[in-house]
Design brief:
It comes from Azospirillum isscasi. By secondary structure, the protein is mainly alpha-helical. The chain is built from six helices and three strands; from the N terminus they run αααβααββα. A three-stranded antiparallel β-sheet has the order 1-3-2.
């Protein structure tokens, strides 16, 4: 239920149902999630629904963040794993949610600007594997 409460502020009932099913989570009766079941649970528990018209742009999906940076979703995940983008997941396996303001970090923009190179921080203290002899 905490999962749905957290997701409800940022996702539609259809997106919540799809994600819960992808993660293998079931209802209390062992059934798969549907839009109707998510909506019913929200109403019973007093959880407000997501309103797409009110989306303020504070949080971005993986697709939106990748498009904003002009990179692929796979590269975005590599940047998250490298620690250049701070991203949240409601539960492990759920899609990442990224603050729009975090996409303006200079280290991130420098890593995105490096074409054809790995997506990671450059370290001044890193020793070369093949030092010049």
């Amino acid at each position: 239920m905490a999962v749905i409460r957290s997701m409800a502020t940022r996702w539609s009932d259809a997106d919540i149902a799809a994600q819960l099913n992808r993660m293998g989570m079931r209802t209390g009766q062992g059934k798969s999630w549907t839009v109707h079941r998510v909506g019913s649970l929200r109403r019973v528990r007093g959880i407000h629904a997501y309103r797409s018209a009110e989306k303020d742009g504070g949080w971005l999906t993986q697709y939106e963040a990748a498009a904003a940076l002009g990179i692929s979703r796979h590269r975005l995940v590599r940047l998250i794993n490298a620690g250049l983008i701070v991203a949240e997941q409601v539960v492990p396996g759920a899609p990442y949610q990224i603050r729009a303001s975090d996409l303006q970090d200079q280290r991130l923009l420098a890593a995105v600007g490096r074409k054809g190179e790995p997506c990671r921080l450059s370290s001044k203290d890193q020793l070369s594997m093949f030092p010049d002899t």
